[in-house]
Amino acid sequence: MKLLITGASGFLGQYVVVNALRRGYEVRAVVRPHQDISLLTWSNHDAVEIVKADLAVAPELVSTVSGVDCVIHLVASKSSDFVKACKGTVLTTQNLLKAMECAQVMRLISISSFSVYDYSQVSDGNTLDESCPIETSPSTRDAYAQTKLMQEQLVREFASLPHSAVTILRPGMIYGREVLWNACHGAGFGPLWLLIGASGIMPVTYVENCADAIVTAVEAKAAVDTTLNIVDDELPTRKNYTDILVKHSPNPPQIVPVNWLLLRGIAQVFWFVNQRVLGGMLKLPGLLIPPRLDARLKPMTYSNQKAKEILNWHPPYSWQDTLERIWNHEMELISV
Prior knowledge:
Elements: E1 2-5, H1 11-22, E2 26-31, E3 48-52, H2 61-65, E4 70-73, H3 82-103, E5 107-111, E6 127-128, H4 143-159, E7 165-171, E8 173-175, E9 187-189, E10 192-196, E11 204-206, H5 207-217, E12 226-230, H6 238-248, E13 254-258, H7 260-277, H8 290-297, E14 301-302, H9 305-311, H10 319-327
Parallel strand pairs: 1-2, 1-4, 2-3, 4-5, 5-7, 6-14, 7-12, 8-11, 10-13
Antiparallel strand pairs: 9-10
Helix pairs in contact: 1-5, 3-4, 7-8
């Protein structure tokens, strides 16, 4: 069975390629046109075909897609500029889906994000799972959330085509050796790190766990026409996670605890004044925009039960084991 993996050279993509190769799949890895493939440890693997392609350029994609059995679509832009994010997430997805339809490749694993949920509809302390509503006021959210919502809509339109077989996976915050400090446990300001709501649970998934779930979904018949959240078991609190990072980091930032309710109250005041008094003229930082603040740091619990049942998947690594492996250099980063 041959898989086409877009975004194969990215943070998550490299691990997805490795996981697929370890399971015996052939891989057509799509990388950027100017990518230095010598940096990819699997670039000379016998089961890997590397294709340099720009998904924003439609004409070349039918040949790129033809002959594969399943597409794993990872490409997305993290740009804060909406136009750039739209090109990198929405246009690329639109072109890929058109090429898949032309080539009659109808099996798709599309990687979405927790950012699509409407956090205003989930009360503090409740569980975020696949039954929760998606965002209905995207204009209040950042470019990433807006374009991931648009991407999901395109994928659902593709899923309505005859013979399509689509699985949407929504990972939480993906972390690994290359990405440890993240927006789910605070915000950095120079030498300071604001630890916001220290007791809150982090909706994280270790990059190898996430890659394992993605590849497991390829042949999981029960996963067709489903949407699944991907997070790890026994999720850490922000304080526990941050404490380990501080303990092992050679030059950790100064940690400044910030009370969640206090910050939310401040954000609501700034938001109200800006919207009702100043007509939205101020460009507020994300931490002072309540819908964005909630999406990052609202205190909730998270479930991976549906993914475990549908995929018969269990995250291979706990967050404690993962961080110890990183600090002890026990990880064989993307070696096959």
